[in-house]
Amino acid sequence: MNEMIKTKGILLSFDLDNTLINNREGIVNSFNYALKKYNIPTLERLEIEKMIGTPLDDMFRQVTDKNPQELSFAFREYYIEKGIYQGSLLPGVEETLEGLKQESFTLGIITSKRQDLAVQVTKILGIFKYFEYVIGESENVKNKLDPNLKKHLLTKYSEYDIVIIGDHPKDRALAENISAPFIGVLTGNHSVEELRRGYTTKTLILRSVSELFPNLIYSLF
């Protein structure tokens, strides 16, 4: 272990969809269920997949003038009953999380998914046990750039070096917002260029979380 950072813990904060899990089928089916319910034309799978990682209300705002909260409620009707069970871990994720825990890293999740659903899906897929926290959309945290989230992270985890890990430019923005290093993964719908664009903090881009090893994490400090 790098001697220079032994005295400070390292907190690795992961995105969920397209970073740790593949829940595209569940999200696509839930999204189109909501559109059908209100007689709005459904979208092709790829169109929906490109929006994954964006808050749900904002996803609906991109495609219709219908009240996004009503559509999000309909989305969750399907998702809670069926969609949440249509996901799987991305290859190598559980082995990577287990290895990082054994190396004494502290792990967390910050997602655009509603917090109670994020907790539920991590339990269904058997990875909840690895995490110090699962933070999602709630009354207190509306999105990844919410000032309440920044305050919480920088206060509660002030004794840690934080690293943000994700597949989406919003994860990159979260890293910038708290002045943390960023590790981008290419398991989503965004390119190396998109994940590097406008960065000022230290950045690594990996093909997937399965390539995340301690020496790469230490290189960021």
Relevant terms:
alpha/beta, two-stranded antiparallel ribbon, 10 helices, 2 domains, disordered N terminus, six-stranded parallel beta sheet, 221 residues, DNA polymerase, domain 1, Rossmann fold
Describe the protein in words:
This protein is an alpha/beta fold and 221 residues long. It folds into two domains: 3-22 and 88-218, HAD superfamily/HAD-like (Rossmann fold, 3-Layer(aba) Sandwich), CATH 3.40.50.1000; 24-85, DNA polymerase, domain 1 (Orthogonal Bundle), CATH 1.10.150.240. The chain contains ten helices and eight strands. The strands form two sheets. It has a six-stranded parallel β-sheet, sandwiched between helices. Helix 1 (24-37) packs across helix 4 (68-81). The longest helix is centred in the first third of the chain and has 14 residues, at 24-37. The radius of gyration is 17 Å and the shape is globular. Residues 1-6 have low confidence and may be disordered.
Short description:
With 221 residues, this protein is of the alpha/beta class. It contains ten helices and eight strands.
